[in-house]
Amino acid sequence: MCEYLASRDFLVMAAVRRYPSRFHEGVRYIVTGDYTKYTAWSELLESCANVIFAAGLAHDKKDTEKYDIISQMNAVLPYEIAKCAIEKNVEKFIFLSSIKVNGEITELGEPFGEQSVPAPCDKYSFSKMLGEEKLCELQPSNTQIAIIRLPLVVGLGAKGNVGLIHKMISKRLPIPVRNIDFNSRSIILLDELCMNLCHMLTNGSGINGVHFIKHDRNLSTKEIVQLIGELDCKKAILFSLPILFLKTAFFIFKLKRLKTQLLCNLEIISNYKISETDDAEPHIR
Predict the structure, then answer these.
(1) What is the spatial distance between Cα 227 and Cα 162, in angstroms, rounded to a whole number?
(2) Mind listing the pLDDT tens digit for each residue in 150-169?
(3) Most exposed of 65, 123, 218, 251 (fewest Cβ within 10 Å)?
(4) Is the pTM of this model over 0.90?
């Protein structure tokens, strides 16, 4: 995101816990250490026109991360930084939340959207919902506050399941999803997310509220795996396993979350669209 914005003549300042392994031209890096212990946010925002809060803490694989630690990162910190942004008359504050605030499964043809009731199902999604609620508690000001409930973000360099799939494809390991072509899941490509964020920063109209953005079409698990390979110009090796076998394996090894992610639907309907006539090219900010 920093690289994308810098390439479009934004003057980007990135608050990072430690220096990245690769520096991007046009990005000024501020090392803060532990975000929750950093105390100079107000001074840092003195010269900022806009803020994108992209940090987040998820549970670990064993789900042992304490909720108060996750909540501190995903709810309290964005609230405190947003208050500083308001004090400094920052124009726009964008909080990257998660579609998991609405839940993890949708019925086919019944996507999550503006009218959907939140139904978080784990520590991470509860903390994101709390972060949204705390931001909504802030008094009206000149600072516009946008919340984006993101679906799965697909791009090279990702961690989590996308990163795991990319590693398997790179190592030419076969992946058992050839016959998982019956479900429908919303995603967004990393470049698309960056383009939407760029548009929000440069668009003159208001961006207050909760936004849903997505790729132009929903994909099955099979298509998502194939797409991850295509991003790196590599073809995924796929094979089939009986769905009943997969469900049984998920049950035996207590992989309920993985079962949901691979076999179920998770669709959203976008309420923030960039028209072809919109000018997303920014002036230097």
Answers:
(1) 10
(2) 999 999 888 888 999 999 99
(3) 251
(4) yes
